[in-house]
Amino acid sequence: MHLAIIMDGNGRWAKQKGLKRIEGHKKGAEVAKEITIYCANHPEIEILTLYAFSTENWKRPKAEVEFLMKLLDNWLKKELDTFIKNEVKFEAIGDISKFSKQLQDRINYTKEKTKNFTRLTQVLALNYGSKDEITRAVKKLIEKKEEITPQNIQKNLDLPVDVDLLIRTSGEIRVSNFLLWQIAYAEMFFTKTLWPDFTTKELDKIIKEFKQRERRFGGI
Ligand code: IPE
Ligand code: IPE
Ligand code: MG
Fold first, then answer.
1. Domain containing 178 — which CATH number?
2. Ligand 2 proximal residues by C-beta, below 6 Å
3. Is residue 139 assigned to a domain?
4. Which tens digit of pLDDT belongs to each residue from 72-128?
5. DSSP codes of every residue in 78-104
6. Would the CB of 50 count as within 6 Å of ligand 1?
7. Catalytic positions, please?
8. In a domain, 83, yes or no
9. I need a surface site. Which of 43, 163, 194, 204 has the fewest CB within 10 A?
């Protein structure tokens, strides 16, 4: 099972508490760790994809963008232990060439150190936009002079696997350029809980509900 999460609401969580937005991001990063451990120990979840930074998030104030980059670097450094202990393979999707050399190195180092683990694959979407991903996939096909088919487009995506369950926190009912191709037949859940308040208990409840849904994929 492939679970994808749009981790939204960090800023509002902080604001509600009279804190700066960055405090919400810090708490959100801790929640991402807890959810990763839960997924690594869940018998059915094979892939967990987390939306961490979108191609549109560059529009935010420079100080917030810089903080998010630093947080990501620190998080990867700190959680390498968590990945190893829980046998989690770390992967990244999106165009990371726009990140600093140091951050790119950190991402590649984490991938390299965890590449043989199979309990869970945790994919972070970093400078990720679905329109950008699909465009790059089609460009690759044209360069290779391959036929443009749905199968070939999918094969050339950063993440060529369909999503089973998509969750978005914070009450927004939109997908914000996340995995548009891969969610074609995903079951979707929108919760009002802000990401820093999201718990493994709520995730557990959503997964139970997901299992009750009848997925027909166009059949009867
Ligand atoms: C999600 O929380 C984290 C990122 C997009 C990096 P937000 O920062 O979008 O929080 P809100 O939506 O402003 O509350
Ligand atoms: C989506 O959240 C991106 C991430 C969670 C990384 P945003 O907060 O950026 O999305 P919008 O602007 O509300 O659609
Ligand atoms: Mg948001």
1. 3.40.1180.10
2. 6-8, 51-54, 57, 172, 174, 176
3. no
4. 999 999 999 999 999 999 999 999 999 999 999 999 999 999 999 999 999 999 999
5. HHHHHHHHTTEEEEEES-GGGS-HHHH
6. no
7. 8, 57
8. yes
9. 43
